[in-house]
Amino acid sequence: MWKKCMGDPSLIIPMEDIVIKDSLSYEEIPIQILDRQVRKLRTKEVTSVKVLWRNKFIGEATWEAEEDMKKTYPHLLESREVPNQGTNPFLPFYI
């Protein structure tokens, strides 16, 4: 028996914004750095940044090594100051 389902239109991502390659894959592009943290290990400190990716919700942001992000996407860390704690309350729930 089929049940009626009410979908949430805010969760739909427009397909015009996504470029799909022949291999049915697409490249995620980082939009903004949301947070920064330093984890202290026994012999060194590892700095991580929380990255908001295009076509993802803020809840799906990922922690990446700051060194790797500097190599791959230097414009993200050069142009803006990275927050020390918490997330930006002025960002919408999704972009």
Automatic annotation (TrEMBL):
Domain Chromo: 32-78
Pfam families associated with the record: Chromo (PF00385)
Tree of life domain: Eukaryota
Name the record gives this protein: Chromo domain-containing protein
The organism of origin for this protein: Solanum verrucosum
Lineage, highest ranks first: Eukaryota, Viridiplantae, Streptophyta, Embryophyta, Tracheophyta
